[in-house]
Amino acid sequence: MLEEVLRYLRPRAGDVAVDCTLGGGGHAQAILDRLQPGGRLIGLDVDSLELPHVEARLRAAGFGPDTFVARHGNFASLPDVLASEGIALADLILVDLGLSSMQADNPERGFNYKNPGPLDMRMDPSRGEPASDLLGRLSEEALVAILTDNADEPHAVKIAGWLKRQPLRTAHALERLVRTGLNAALPEMSKADVKMSVRRTFQALRIAVNDEFAALDALLRSLPDCLAPGGRVVVLTFHSGEDRRVKQAFRAGRRQGLYSAVADEVIRSTKDETFSNRRAAAAKLRWAVRGAD
């Protein structure tokens, strides 16, 4: 949704921008092009493995340290990051909550089951516990709550029971357990519905491993204090739990006078983009404009 991001952020020469989820750097590079001359972008990413590659790519594109700064960290600490860079307020902030293609397609990260790999799912592999350890530590009741709260999984009780039957160390093993379990217990389920439950299971565990909702809630609380008057924020979400939090925070901020305008309706990717990139089908964009103090 690059065109939509640029449309609602409206980057201009001289602006100070923050990309809270640098990912592959595609959004950041397009924004940086529009900030020149005189603009600056701070790029955050919690992924310690991919960040150096993205920084090198943007340096090769001609953006030096005076224009672009890459920081390893979680966007929950955005106010501290701005302070450390000597920035009082940002003119525009982008938050893309989806997995980057590098993360999703790397079998060693364990985010999907297309290729064999360890059941890890950590955004920052240098910290926290992998999904395999989380599954071994949590009770069946806790797993039911995770599957329900993080992914609205209708078969959470059944899946949680299967997840506790045996140790799971690979993404393939997790996919096989959920798929064969649903096929046996609910033979009337379509292949598409079974596949969706598998995806929701991976999603729920990834959110739990990385404590994603807590980080998002912290960011949404701090956003108004990080934006200059008239500054703009765009958030891309990829499932209902994320979108619900963003919608509620933006609407509450407007009622309180923190935002002068917010998206009345969610913006989705175009049919052409969805056709060419299936991962864009789940994307939802919401924007807000900081009110004048």
List keywords for this structure.
47% helix; 2 domains; 13 helices; single chain; alpha/beta; Rossmann fold; DNA polymerase, domain 1; 293 residues
How are the elements arranged and paired?
Elements (H helix, E strand, L loop, with lengths): L1 H8 L6 E4 L6 H10 L4 E6 L5 H10 L7 E5 L5 H7 L5 E7 L4 H5 L25 H7 L2 H12 L4 H8 L7 H15 L5 H20 L1 H15 E11 L2 H16 L3 E4 L4 E2 L2 H6 L7 E7 L3
Parallel strand pairs: 1-2, 1-4, 2-3, 4-5
Antiparallel strand pairs: 5-8, 6-8, 7-8
Helix pairs in contact: 7-8, 7-10, 8-9, 9-10, 11-12
**Content-based structural category:** alpha/beta
Low-confidence stretches: none
CATH homology group of the largest domain: Vaccinia Virus protein VP39
Shape: globular
Largest beta-sheet details: 8 strands, mixed
Quote the CATH topology of the largest domain. Answer: Rossmann fold
Alpha-carbon Rg, integer: 20 Å
**Overall CATH architecture of the largest domain:** 3-Layer(aba) Sandwich
Q: Give the overall pLDDT as a whole number.
A: 92
Write structural notes for this entry.
The protein has about 290 residues and is an alpha/beta fold. The chain has two domains: about 180 residues, Rossmann fold (3-Layer(aba) Sandwich), CATH 3.40.50.150; about 100 residues, Orthogonal Bundle (DNA polymerase, domain 1). Helices cover about 45% and strands about 15% of the residues. It has 13 helices and eight strands. Strands 1, 2, 3, 4, 5, 6, 7 and 8 form an eight-stranded mixed β-sheet that branches. Helix 2 links the parallel strand 1 and strand 2. Helix 7 packs across helix 10 and helix 11 packs parallel to helix 12. The longest helix has 20 residues. The model has no long low-confidence stretch (mean pLDDT about 90).
